[in-house]
Automatic annotation (TrEMBL):
Residues 9-120 form the SnoaL-like domain. InterPro entries: NTF2-like_dom_sf (IPR032710), SnoaL-like (IPR037401). This is SnoaL-like domain-containing protein.
Amino acid sequence: MPDGRQLADRVLDAVNAHDLDRLSRCYDRHAVLVTPLGVCEGREQILGYWESLFKGFTDMALTVWNRVECADPGFSEWMMTGTHTGSFALPDGVVGASGRRITVRGCGACHAKNDLVVAHRDYFDLLELYYQLGYSLVPD
């Protein structure tokens, strides 16, 4: 029976392969994914999140820097790289392709139950992503 660590590795492998079918087999149908971009409740919303990333960053890749050796949650530090070649949803709207390269550092935790991810949390600096896409803060 896979633990959170093993399932986190499966998710990372499926993400790097841009394989939505493999990702669907990683998540429980009621799983929750929490990121700075929003909360996805249920497998379908989670797959929609990953699909949006794959369309927005067609060469997106996650490189793991560190894996914490514990069973649950599976925890890792990573770096996401890619080129913004397609539309991508941000919390304040959809942005078209900018052609810019991104390098965003983050970390994630996956909780397992019954051989599937039931809770997945990714943390990264959303402001860093905005700046790399060419956006800046504008006060109200």
